[in-house]
Amino acid sequence: MFHSHKNQKAFSLVEVVVASAILLLFFGGLLSGVKLMVELIGHSKAETGARSLALSKMEYIRSLNYDSIGTVSGVPSGVIPQTSTTSLNGIVYTERVLVLYVDRPEDGLEGDDENGVLEDSKRIKVEYTWTIRGDEKSIFLVTDMSPKGMETSSGGGTLIVNVFNATVEPVSGASVRIFNDTLGTSTVDVTVDTNVSGRVIIPGVPPGGGYQITVTKDGYSTDKTYDVTAENTDPSPPHVAVASSTITTMYFSIDEMATLTLRSLGEPVVLEFVDEFTNATLLTQMNNTAVSGGAIALTSVEGSYVASGHAYSTTTAPTTFSSWNTFEWDFVAPTSTTVSVSLYQESGGTFSLVDDAVLPGNTVGFTSSPVDISHLATSTYARLALRANLDSSDQAVTPEVVSWRLTYIESEPPLADLTFDLVGTKSIGIDVFKYQDSTVTDAGGVRTLSLEWDVYTITVDGATEGYDIKEVREVLPYTLAPGANATLAFVLAPHTARTLHITVTDQNNVPLSGSPVELSGTGYDETMTTSAYGQVFFSDLPSLESFTINISQSGFDAYSNTIIVSGNITEVIALTPSI
């Protein structure tokens, strides 16, 4: 009996806990529902009040003399404030009134208007906005009013603003602010949103110079007109002049802001797996291949080589490392033979090809090296191996792989507090650029910037910072696309007085890896091979009158030129394809 009674008590306690949880869920949901209902009722009540206020405001505006209908500092100018606040039933509303001239199509538009009067009527928009518990709502009313009798010109001009994005497509919903406080009699300050064609048309603008135009949109860059200053004596575009009975048309370009992250890194610690085939101990799963004379070659049967074969390297599986880097190989491929190398991941002794979606071209195999694999996620690709594919259509010859290596970066020390100088190419005057600024990386060697789309030159003052740019994992100048989220990693080396950083590309600005670059001068001759990013860096160069650059790359014309290295020089060299 006692044992049974104890179980009954325990079960009752569980029931109480479950019931309490259900009640909490029920009442919690009920409370949320009540809160939502209160907010809905509040907004419904506020909307009723806003509509009442808007109708009253419209009636007041309709009661005004047509010539008086306009806003303070608006176009047309009038007695109605553009923005004000009012209260009704304990709710505070923000009231916004916009009045614009409208060019109606009945008598022709713009330059085709039959009587040359573009101020055919006035369009009035009244908007009321309120906030309840942080939730903002609004309503608006719009109406057109025409003058009694014959339409007449206000004596002003017409200002047309067109807004496009980076691909010259219209941007709707952009805010165009027209401001002028130099007219003497009154100030013009009106903001109008672009239509679906990315356009704003404002007839009746008071004649005069000095109209400032600023175009904005949430999440987008800003474009505007500029003042004449001591630093910018010939701005582009300057503030605008409007003349009576004329149409002034302006064009502006805005697009989504982009994010650019800069990383400043010291010279990385690079480790490697390397095999020069003195024997076959670093090879596995060989098929129709053998190590002979310090190379992998096809096997032969009675003096004839087989048509194809392959061999895998042993697995490279670093215990700790920052990133993969490259793989490369040296080979000999006589006529009628080919050599390609592919990258595999290994798990439990099974090799699987790294997918083309991650490493494009890997399925068919690479025929030139090095191959950049720095983007491979180390968490996914922790164990890698190389596979050589040898083919011959001539039984008398075989291709050979002489050596190969797989490199990875064990660590990349961040360089803190490094200053980068950025300059865009968009000009707002003679030798005056829209973006020209410096930024400093944080303690982790990182700086993230919000920038508009442009082509940016990014440099480091080696003499001041103590470092020179050795390699950038992109081609500079860097093209930043609208809305992009990009990262640029800069590998830096200790500063020396004379350096030469060369990037070798094709004519489409694609970097060319594996290109031998020879730099020579009196008593100096050094050759380097471009990295996976198409770059070489010559440091601590002697003080010579000039150097000669020679570049050779299969499929391209040989390049030769003379250069003077008087400091820290950066060159981008585009090779010409061979005919």
Molecular structure report:
The protein is mainly β and 579 residues long. The chain has 4 domains: 110 residues; 99 residues, Immunoglobulin-like; 143 residues, Jelly Rolls (Sandwich), CATH 2.60.120; 155 residues, Sandwich (Immunoglobulin-like), CATH 2.60.40.10. The strands form 11 sheets. Strands 14, 16, 17, 21, 24 and 26 form a 6-stranded antiparallel beta sheet that branches. Strands 6, 7, 9, 10 and 11 form a 5-stranded antiparallel beta sheet that branches. A 5-stranded antiparallel beta sheet has the order 15-20-25-22-23, with no helix packed on it. It is elongated, with a radius of gyration of 36 Å. The relative contact order is 0.08.
CATH classification class of the largest domain? Mainly Beta
Strand content: 35-45%
Helix fraction by DSSP (H/I, runs of at least 4): 10-25%
Determine the number of helices (DSSP H or I, runs of at least 4 residues). 2
Q: Are there runs of 5+ residues with pLDDT below 50, and where?
A: 1-9, 112-116
What's the overall geometry?
Answer: elongated
CATH topology name of the largest domain? Immunoglobulin-like
From the coordinates shown, what is the CATH architecture of the largest domain? Sandwich
CATH superfamily of the largest domain: Immunoglobulins
The whole-angstrom Rg is 36 Å
How many structural units, i.e. domains? 4
Q: What separation lies between the terminal Cα atoms? A: 102 Å
